[in-house]
């Protein structure tokens, strides 16, 4: 299990949203929704980010 801060997770989700892989939904029933199902590309996108966590 990777332990990261809430703030760092928000940065990763923002990266995924800006790259068009997820859509964020506001409100009490909000969250994130996957809109492009390409796990290999998502892994490559955040791989460098997670390497920094160790």
Looking at this protein, list some descriptive labels.
54 residues, alpha+beta, 2 helices
At a glance:
The chain is of the alpha+beta class and 54 residues long. The chain contains two helices and two strands, in the order αββα.
Task: Reconstruct the topology from this structure.
Elements: H1 6-18, E1 22-25, E2 31-34, H2 39-53
Notes on the structure:
A two-stranded antiparallel ribbon has the order 1-2. Helices cover about 50% and strands about 15% of the residues. It is of the alpha+beta class. It has one domain. The chain has two helices and two strands; from the N terminus they run αββα.
Radius of gyration, in Å, reads 12 Å
Percent of residues in beta strands: 5-15%
> Could you give the distance between the termini?
11 Å
Biggest β-sheet: count, sense, barrel?
A: 2 strands, antiparallel
Poorly predicted ranges (pLDDT <50, ≥5 residues)? none
Spatial shape: globular
Summed up, the helix count is: 2
Rounded mean pLDDT score: 79
Strand arrangement across the biggest beta sheet: 1-2
- The level of helicity is 40-55%
Which structural category fits the helices and strands? alpha+beta
How many domains would you count in the coordinates? Answer: 1
